[in-house]
Amino acid sequence: MKPLRLAVMLEQAIEVGGGFQQPLNDALWLHDWAKKSGNVVVVYSPYPRTIEALKEFGIEGRLLKFGVLDHGFLFLKYCRPFDLVQIALKAKSLFERALIKDGIDVVHFTSTSKRHLLLYQLPFTITVFDGCHRDTPEFPEVRAFGEFERREILFGLACTKAAIVIANAPELVDNLCRRYAMERDRAVCIPLSPSPYVAQSTKAGATDAAVLGKHGLEPGYLFYPAQFWPHKNHMTLLMALSLLREKGITERLVLCGSDRGGLEKIDAAIAAYGLSKQVSIIGFVDSSDLSALYRGAFALVMPSYFGPTNLPPLEAWAVGTPVIYPEAFKDQVGDAAILFDYDEPQSLADAILELRRDGTRERLCKAGYRRLEQFAAEIELGRERFTQQMQRLKHRLALTLC
User: Fold this and answer.
1) What is the strand order of the sheet 297-301 is part of?
2) Which residues pair with residue 189 across a beta bridge?
3) Which of 18, 77, 360, 375 is the most exposed place for a label (fewest CB within 10 A)?
4) Could you give all domains of the chain from N- to C-terminal order, each with its CATH number?
5) Quick one: how far is CA 351 from the chain centroid?
6) How far apart are CA 168 and CA 191, in angstroms?
7) Distance (Å, rounded) from C-alpha 231 to C-alpha 262?
């Protein structure tokens, strides 16, 4: 049987943060899987910067941009009657034609990509990180200007048409089956894993002081790496700091991430609460800085409304930094975090105080390492199931070419 040629699509820009780091993890392990199994993985991205980043890990990626015609094709695909025209004309997008020309057999999307709609001939597998447009539709980033409707089309088709759907938590698999009638045996659960930039640098080094100095920081701050979206809930964190200051407790906070339209309001809130001397906003940071920034933190504080899983807790655990996390997502963290109500600033303020109690930080660090070990075992099982499913898919595709 000839080797399977799997296209791995890295479509998230580096500036997306965790939304880039987890797909990068997927690309790295699939690259290793191909070597061991005798198959071939070709990694594609529309971003030259991503192609350069892949070289750091010994992968020669291929640049595959999406042109005007592909976007036009996508627009027509959102208009469902166009499917009939496509069938009649056997029309293929330029995107799919490029992959076929490269001899690709299967396309693997490392995110819930809209570009699976461009595939007419090639089968695909897809990754679903969350269903937050259903969980919290009140936020404009998943509701306004047709975004909710667009996601419903994408999720509905992806979950029913994909040969394999990768999700990172059992409850997410349950939701996809219930909401979109996804066949459960097509789902593979593979938990998130720390960014390779953090996982490969878990011990403090001489560069840590240089990284903190570059950003004007001293160790011992609260750390929240997140893009500035409303759902990231920076406001509750600022309110909690204000409540603590009223009690004479001053906590330093470091925020990093790309501005997605919410930074102006956050700046205004910092000024209104009088927190300018306590809060440092350092913007988007290089991936190579992440490990030092986590290590320099007294704790990761993550009040995000989106789940049920997130990447920063795993990265914090990897370097021995404790976690403060929403109670709504306790299934991810177990006993390895201090939990709080993400709608209650006082609850978050109390959680920060609890971390200062003797022995709490050490206990959480040990629990975090144990939690990472549990996830490592689950990741291994999930990847084994994925490779088994890929072997079945390879066999079936070989039959269609006989």
Assistant:
1) 279-281, 253-256, 221-225, 297-301, 323-326, 338-340
2) 167
3) 360
4) 5-193+376-400 (3.40.50.2000), 196-374 (3.40.50.2000)
5) 25
6) 4
7) 10
Is the peptide bond between 170 and the residue preceding it cis, with omega within 30 degrees of 0?
no
Q: 169, 258 in Cβ contact below 8 A?
A: no
Task: Provide the pairing of β-strand 221-225 with 253-256.
Answer: parallel
The answer for residues whose C-beta is within 8 angstroms of residue 89's C-beta and 6 or more apart is: none
pLDDT in tens, the chain (402 residues): 789 999 999 998 888 877 888 999 999 999 999 999 999 999 999 999 999 999 999 999 999 988 888 888 787 777 666 666 666 667 788 999 999 999 999 999 999 999 998 998 999 999 999 999 999 999 999 998 889 998 999 999 999 999 999 999 999 999 999 999 999 999 999 999 998 888 776 666 668 899 999 999 999 999 999 999 999 999 999 999 999 999 999 999 999 999 888 899 999 999 999 999 999 999 999 888 999 999 999 999 999 999 999 999 999 999 999 999 999 999 999 999 999 999 999 999 999 999 989 899 999 999 999 999 999 999 999 999 999 999 999 999 988 765
The structure tokens listed for 233 are: 């809930």
Is residue 321 within 8 A of residue 300, CB to CB? The reply is: yes
B/e letters for 382-394, b = 16+ CB within 10 Å, e = fewer, are bbebbbebbeebb
In this structure, what token pair is assigned to residue 177?
A: 């089956």
- Cβ atoms of 8 and 43 within 8 Å: the answer is yes
Amino acid at 75: F
- Orientation of helix 48-55 relative to helix 18-37, angle to 10°: 50
Q: Which residues of 66-76 are buried (b: 16+ CB within 10 A; e: fewer)?
A: beeebeebbeb
Q: Give me 11's structure tokens.
A: 């479509």
Q: How far is Cα 384 from Cα 191, in angstroms, rounded to an integer? A: 13
